[in-house]
Design brief:
This protein has 340 residues and is α+β, with helices and mostly antiparallel strands. The protein folds into two domains: 177 residues; 151 residues, Histidine kinase-like ATPase, C-terminal domain (Heat Shock Protein 90, 2-Layer Sandwich), CATH 3.30.565.10. The chain is built from six helices and nine strands, in the order αααβαββαββββαββ. Strands 1, 2, 3, 4, 5, 8 and 9 form a seven-stranded mixed β-sheet that branches. The chain starts with a helix and ends in an 8-residue tail after the last strand.
Length: 340
């Protein structure tokens, strides 16, 4: 076909040249009608040649586009096959990860169930037996024996406490917690905390002060869970305070929040330890530092505050000690009463 097109174009060009030669050299005395016919012939030849040439160009481009299309189809098919293989591999991997995740979750639940049933219960029984032993129900003990048995009883109590906190932390992190929310005014909440919280026995004389401001504002909270949060903060503050711990409630209108701060006049916390403060398994050392250990207290405090729609944060106290601030959303600014 290319040869035929080339022949047609050549014939058209030769015809045009021949017509021009006839007009200029061989037929100078043509009549008007003859000249018109010659011009029409030349126009026909030029148009025909041009159309044939354009058709050839378009046909050539069509063949090129067809070739490119076929190449694209081949590349697309190959790429599609690769992607299908990758998707299949990802699906297999995802199913394996899902099975592994379910297995890990099940193992964690089994582990926590074992903590609660297999470890916490024996620890409780051991603590009771040691307490009876200390009270002399199995005979009088010497002073040295009482010290040893008392230490064992304290360790059993701490073990039980840590096990229960682990279980509670898991409940909060998995959303398996049902808060019994009630409405409390800030001053009522502080008074009830003052009644409920117990001050740990320390070697120094420790004063614990409760201050409530803007007591008419109201919050919704589960008092039992919230008291656990502040009991842990009070335990920490009592450990490091030199002479005084202050628990103060205030209202921040700009933040629309009620704030309860637990402040001590102890050594405070070094800045380099703050990023990990509310992570799991952080321990309060005797030097005031928080490092990886076997307790989850502050992490559980953060989860309890978050479950109430609030936050917990650490600040340096004006006295140079530590100040933990718990913020809870305010639901009313007028006088409210505690509803049972």
């Amino acid at each position: 076909m290319s040869q035929a097109v080339s022949t047609a174009v050549i014939v058209a060009i030769v015809g045009l040249l021949a017509a021009a030669a006839l007009e200029q050299f061989f037929l100078p005395d043509l009549s008007t009608g003859q000249m018109r016919l010659l011009h029409l012939t030349r126009g026909f030849l030029a148009t025909s040649g041009g159309m044939v040439f354009m058709w050839w160009i378009m046909h050539h481009k069509e063949q090129e586009l067809t070739r490119l299309r076929d190449q694209f189809k081949e590349q697309l098919s190959a790429r599609t096959a690769e992607l299908e293989g990758a998707v299949a591999a990802c699906q297999v991997h995802a199913r394996a990860v899902d099975r592994m995740s379910r297995s890990v979750v099940q193992q964690r639940e089994d582990f926590l169930r074992a903590l609660k049933l297999r470890l916490s219960t024996p620890a409780m029984a051991s603590h009771r037996a040691l307490t009876h032993l200390l009270e002399g129900e199995y005979g009088e003990l010497t002073t040295e024996q009482k010290q040893v048995v008392g230490l064992l009883a304290d360790n059993c109590s701490e073990l039980q406490h840590q096990l229960l906190m682990l279980v509670d932390l898991y409940r909060y992190q998995t959303g398996d917690v049902d808060l019994r929310l009630r409405t409390w005014t800030l001053d009522k909440l502080l008074r009830e905390l003052e009644t409920r919280l117990t001050v740990p026995a320390t070697g120094n004389r420790l004063a614990v002060r409760y201050e409530a401001g803007d007591g008419g504002v109201a919050v919704e909270c589960d008092f039992s869970e919230l008291s656990r949060l502040f009991q842990h903060l009070l335990d920490n503050a009592s450990t490091f305070a030199r002479s005084e711990v202050t628990i103060k409630g205030t209202w921040l209108p700009a933040a629309h929040a009620a704030v309860i701060a637990v402040e001590d006049d102890g050594p405070g916390i070094p800045p380099e330890d703050l990023p990990r403060l509310f992570q799991g398994f952080q321990y309060v050392s005797e030097t005031g530092k928080y490092y990886a250990g076997a307790t989850v207290g502050l992490c559980l405090c953060a989860e309890i505050a978050r479950a109430h729609g609030g936050t917990i944060a650490y600040e340096s106290a004006p006295s140079g000690g530590a100040r933990f601030v718990v913020s809870l959303p305010v639901i009313a600014s007028d006088d409210a009463t505690h509803t049972d």
